[in-house]
Amino acid sequence: MDQPRIPPGQTLTTGLPVLDLGLRPDLRPENWSLALFGLVEQELRLDWDHFQSLPREARCSDFHCVTHWSRLDAQWEGVAAKTLIALARPLADARFVTLHGADGYTTNLPLEALLDPDVLLADGLDGGPLADAHGGPVRLVVPRRYAWKSAKWLVGLEFHAEDRPGYWEVRGYHNDADPWKEERYAE
Question: For 42-51, how does the pLDDT look when each residue is reduced to its tens digit (9 = 90+)?
Fold first, then answer.
C-alpha cells in the first residue's frame, strides 16, 4: 500500500503561502553572504559567486507548514547542505546547528538532520529564482520537518555541541517538528 503524502492534520495547497515575522531584509545576491562558524575546522564566509560555483542540485519535495497546509512537488534548486557542511568540516563535538536568518530569525536542528540528502540551501523554486517573499536569495529547505525549520533569508549556520532552541521553539513549538508525528507544539 502506498504511503500518503499529506501528513495528518494538513490541507493541500497548490501555492506557497507567505509567512514570516513581518521583517523583510533587503537582501540581493550582490549583498548576500553565508557564514559557517562555531565548532568547525574551517570557518567560511561565502559570497554569491562562491555559492553559485558549488555543485548544484535540483530536488522535488513536499513542503509542510505547521499552520496546516502542505505543498506537494515543490521544485527546489540550490546547493546540498551536506556539500557546504563538508567544506566547513564540523568538529567531532558539533552535534547541533543554529540557522540564522537576516531578519534575526533562528531555528535549530541536529547536525544529522542537515546531512539528509534532500536538504538544500535553495536559491531557486519552480524553475525561477527564489523570490524575496519566500526567503530569497537563499533559504534552507528541510522537507522532513515543518517549514519553520526551513529558515528564510539564510545568512548563517552556527555549529555547537548543545542544542539551542530558536525563535519558535522558545515560544512553545516542538523542537523536532516532524509533520508525520504532528509535532507542532511542545507538550
Answer: 999 999 999 9
153-178 pLDDT per residue, tens: 999 999 999 999 999 999 999 999 99
Q: What cell does 171 get?
A: 515560544
C-alpha distances in angstroms, 49 versus 9, 52, 90? 41, 5, 23
User: What residues have CB less than 8 Å from 71, skipping those under 6 apart?
Assistant: 12, 13, 14, 15, 16, 62, 63, 64
What lies within 8 Å, CB to CB, of 127 at 6+ separation is: 75
Q: Which residue has the cell 535540483?
A: 58
* Residue 149 in grid coordinates: 525549520
DSSP string, the chain: -PPPSS-TT-EEESS------S------GGG-EEEEEESBSS-EEEEHHHHHHSPPEEEEEEEE-TTSEEEEEEEEEEEEHHHHHHHH-B-TT--EEEEEETTS-EEEEEHHHHTSTT-EEEEEETTEEPPGGGTTT-EEE-TTS-GGGS-SSEEEEEEESS----TTGGGTB-SS--GGGT--B--
Query: Do residues 35 and 121 make contact, with C-beta atoms less than 8 angstroms apart?
Result: no
Phi, psi (deg, nearest 5) at residue 5: -100, -10
Is the pTM here over 0.85, yes or no?
yes
Please report the pLDDT score of residue 1 as a whole number: 52
- Give the cell for residue 152: 528564510
